[in-house]
Give the backbone structure.
Amino acid sequence: MNEIFQAFIMSFTPISLLVAFVSTLIGVVLGAIPGLNGGIGIAVMMPFTYGMPPALGLLFLGGIYMGSSYGGAITAVLINCPGTSNATCTAIEGFPLAKQGRGKEALYYAVYASTAGGLLGVLALIFFTPALAQLSLRFGPPEMLLVSICGLAIVGSMSAGKVKKGIFAAICGLTLKMIGMQASTGMPRLTWGTKTLLSGIDTLPAIIGLFALAEMVDQAAVLIGGGEEVEKIELEKEKVALSTFIKTVSFKTGHGLTLWKSAIIGTIVGILPGTGGAIAAFIAYGDAKRSSKHPERFGNGAEDGIIAVESANNAAVGGSMVPMLGLGIPGSTNSAIMLGAMTVHGLIPGYQLFNETPGIAYGFLFGMILTVLFMLAIGVLGVPLFSLILKVKMEYIVPVVIACCLLGAYSSRNSLTDVFFACVFGVIGVAFNKFDIPCAPMLLGLILGGLIENYFLKTVMLANAAKQGLLIYVVTRPLCIVIIALCAYLIYSNSKDAIKTSKIKKELGAGQRI
Amino acid sequence: MRKMISFVIAAVLVAGLSGCGNSANGREGSNAVIVTETKASETVADANTDWPTQNVQISVPYKAGGGVDKAARMVCAELEKTTGKTFVITNKPEGNGIIAINELAEQEPDGYNLMVVSNRDLFGHIVNDIEGVEYDKDSFTYLATLLEGADCLFSQSGKFSSFDEMIEYAKENPGKLTIATSNNTGLQTVNEICKLLDIQISGMAYSSGSDAFADLLGGHVDGAMVALSFYVQGKDNGVIPILTMTTEQFPVDDLSVGCLTDYGVEEAASPMFRYLMGPAGMDPALVDTIVAQLDQVYAEGSDLCNDIKAQYDSPHYMVGDELAAFVEENYQLRVKQASSD
């Protein structure tokens, strides 16, 4: 206990504060730039931590992870280019809010929600790591298969009333994910004998292409076409920081409930292996829409949408570190890289970390609270600065964003193939926008497609080994029954909402494309 | 509208040209193993032996967090301290790592594109004629072995406390025993064990040792064949190693863990090392420079050696002639094992 208290005190030393602040700032900036993300930041910055004490080194990487989970919201809201896959749904709701002259409000919603989610995730990490780590182990291939299918169930929520088009986009995403070498058998699929397609399609080029590049091409087309004025986005002049804070946390407005519910969803989804912030964000978004009194607002600037997504994706940061610290099993790609850093620092995750080196373990955890607080400060103080992006002429923004996107696409796997895919997805995004097909479901299909196939194959193998049919094997597992019930409820609820939204939209005669 | 269409067409053309960049520089995709004789005969005559003068790219054809990834990060961290340069590690697990290895074979042998890979997987891909493999043993310059590990069969201690118990269960319940492996190479080992011991086991290939081990910890599979270094996490969760896939005993605390050869299964047992390698044709002077840097971090009693031992691996460092002899011997062993199928 003495060591834990010492670790708490040490968190407030100038060097700890500096490390927490700088790393969070780096993370926010990286997350904001389309094409770059926390994973790249962690991988590139890791060597700089080798000379630091272990707790500070881990804190540096954790700060980048936390900051980048929020940073993607900035460009998502202001220029409809999510910096990370976590912020895809933030763009769906935040950009329309910005076009309504409520851009600052949207940014404040994002930072407050990110703070709340991040705080809950880190507190769960501090107090409940052993229990949550054991919970994460309960999710085997059948459970993860059902969770992934659950994720697909929210396609309807993301389609803003265009359910059939959304399903089409999701199917396209699932199909594209099949391209490449099949993981279990090593057989190439849909590669047409080309090396380019053998490595499959990574999600990062898809995000860059479908959202950032497509948006920039659309903007460029308006500029090049002439005769049309680029729609100028005005920011509210009044100060909205405090009023937005009150709205975010207030249970009266209903946002408070969405905020904390999404944080819990993010933490729990984060602990599941291989999920991460993006899936947590999609699930929280779907739930927010399902439980909203005004689901028709989703797709047109629903505050709950932003709050749910940002709360969940930052809560998933803490969640994904639970199995990493508690078991040595990474819960996401970013935490996998951090696990490598732990090995380099000679730290052994699990029981030993918390019992033999509590100073290091708790020093890191308390430091993560600081990163959340610094993220809040950077976000709140930075909103007027971030908003200046809108004052820059689009003819300057377009080439800079495109350059960042292509650089980001390359840097993910040091591969020109990813740059190629980003451009291809850019063309697909432009086409989808033209035909009013939502892009987010395609991204969801790409993210979940690989997981569904992987877990399906394993579930089939386990069922065969148990000499049971697949269905019997799955429904005899208690956790699976819970997830099936949840999935069925989500599908029913989303279908009901889709019909209700469609009716309301017909009555209002409104229709805003995603 | 016309201008927009022109813009889009231009973008597609640019995309197409950039995508063709890789295949234009390398060989066309083929299922046949291509012997890179021309590459091996070309040396970078004017190689700068003052290495490194810039960042070094280290590819790891596995997911982050696994045994090979951890080994690569440990060694590169020490190299960064001694050289003052950055070693950027990129994980490329796509296609069971085959794609990354194909790419390495096509890189310039300038010492700035290297890879850390398990010898088991590298030679396993070649001798088992895996589809998509475009390299062979001579496609690379082998620089050093970074450590010797052991693939190990783990089980929950409450379920099977020894491999004998596992075999007995498998015989009584054919096909019911499930073993998760960290990749397809491990799955082949499981199949080999089944054939030679005349038992039926349901082997399942995962994309990383972490995922396989997690499912064992969760009780979803009966066993997991992953790197011995996972024992660090398994110890506190009731998971024990019951068999190593090596050719001789591997010390594991005070546990008595047999090895495959104890059961007469010679064909599936082989030593497991992590190679540091580059494309074929690296200048011998450059290789010597890199080895000299490695010699510093592998000094007796160094932090690196202690860290490796803490992970239940052995800092078995081989370079030069010893390494060349081992590579040849190990490759021939794998060829022999594959041909006895």
Notes: Chain B has two domains: 52-148+272-339, 151-263. Residues 140 and 226 of chain B are 26 Å apart (CA to CA).
